[in-house]
Design a protein that fits this description.
By secondary structure, the protein is α/β, with parallel strands linked by helices. The chain contains twelve helices and 13 strands. The strands form four sheets. Strands 6-5-13-11-12-10-9 form a seven-stranded mixed β-sheet. The protein has a two-stranded antiparallel sheet with strand order 1-2. Strands 3-4 form a two-stranded antiparallel sheet.
Length: 357
């Protein structure tokens, strides 16, 4: 009798989930995972023959399964609290801060990064003063050998050897773990004063201004959804003053605005800074008459840094080679006597296939 009850209950649960999945409307976007869900596949006889339809349907069924996020959260709790594993899909938590394991060093990627940047320098930057720096991901400051992370000394050495004819600006010693979001990969804009001062000491500028802090909460960073854990979200702070309110922004692809507050509460609130990742952005400061210009070859970290540098320059141009080839770039940007800052994070350097030629 007991076996019959268990079997019958199991059938009810299976049938119940089947009916729920039929009745519930398909979702289009996962806010927690920051991606679009798989749509119901357009099944053709040819796809059935080559099994493509079943592969697409499997992805669709996994994405649209009812209570997907609840099951993801349950799995994460089991992995961390029951099985006592160190990470769940490379995500781990230490002192209520979420990290993603980046390991091991990809020497091919690092050399590819060096090759691509040196090609840009040799072809376009002969008449510019070129500086470079490397932004450490927050794992660099995690003093716990239990977890796997990059051999940072080896990565930095490879890049420094490859960029030996450029002036290096060290940032590792002016940053700390508290300068990064707990639930996200990026650094916090309100914590970058030491970074700005270090860049200024090497690039011959001084910035001494005050800002008003604008706070948005709750900020759920990219790691929050990936962790599937109900941890405390961050506050996101962006800095304003009268001078920044008057700068002129031209965005090659998105809104022409320094702080796009419409992005707050979106899938990625960090996109408040310069509307997120985009191929080309220029920021012009009508209050700065020194005529100095800065070009930054960058990833997403520079979106929050650039507003803090514009006080020292009449114009800043940000170029993201993940979204623009050099052929397109040369038709849009003139390189002549500007300061140039090559500024990339260790995570991108170790995954440089995203940089276009």
């Amino acid at each position: 009798m007991k076996e019959k009850i268990i079997t019958f209950s199991f059938i009810i649960v299976i049938c119940g989930f089947f009916l729920l999945n039929l009745l519930v409307t398909d979702k289009t976007v996962s806010w927690s995972e920051r991606r679009s869900y798989q749509k119901f596949p357009n099944i053709t006889w040819e796809q059935i023959q080559n099994k493509g339809a079943m592969d697409d349907f499997d992805k669709y069924a996994l994405d649209q399964f009812v209570l997907r996020d609840s099951f993801r959260s349950l799995k994460a709790h089991v992995v961390f609290n029951v099985l006592k594993q160190l990470d769940n899909n490379q995500i781990f938590v230490k002192d209520n801060m979420i990290f993603k394991s980046e390991y091991p060093n990809n020497d091919t990627s690092i050399q590819n990064f060096i090759k691509k940047i040196m090609k840009v320098k040799n072809q376009y930057l002969k008449n510019n003063k070129v500086y470079y720096s490397i932004i450490p991901d927050k794992n660099y400051y995690l003093e716990d050998s239990t977890y796997l992370y990059l051999d940072y000394d080896a990565l930095y050495k490879m890049v420094m050897d490859g960029f030996s004819d450029m002036e290096y600006i060290e940032l590792r010693d002016v940053l700390s773990l508290s300068d990064y979001y707990r639930t996200d990969t990026h650094w916090r804009q309100e914590k970058l004063d030491k970074v700005v001062n270090r860049l200024g000491s090497k690039m011959n500028f001084t910035i001494d201004v005050t800002y008003t802090e604008k706070k948005y909460s709750p900020f759920y960073g990219v790691y929050y959804g990936q962790s599937a854990l109900q941890l405390k979200p961050d506050d996101l702070v962006y800095l304003e003053n009268e001078e920044l309110n008057q700068v002129i922004v031209e965005n090659y692809e998105k809104e022409d605005i320094l702080y796009n507050t419409d992005k707050l509460g979106s899938m990625d609130s960090y996109d408040v800074f310069l509307s997120g990742s985009t191929p080309l952005v220029t920021i012009t400061n009508p209050n700065q008459t020194n005529g100095k210009e800065l070009i930054i070859f960058r990833d997403s970290y520079s979106s929050s840094l650039a507003p803090l540098l514009i006080t020292a320059y009449s114009k800043i141009t940000l170029i993201d080679l993940r979204y623009m080839t050099t052929k397109v770039m040369e038709n849009l940007v003139t390189f002549e006597n500007q300061d140039v800052l090559i500024l990339y994070s260790t995570m991108l350097i170790n995954n440089s296939s995203t940089i276009k030629d």
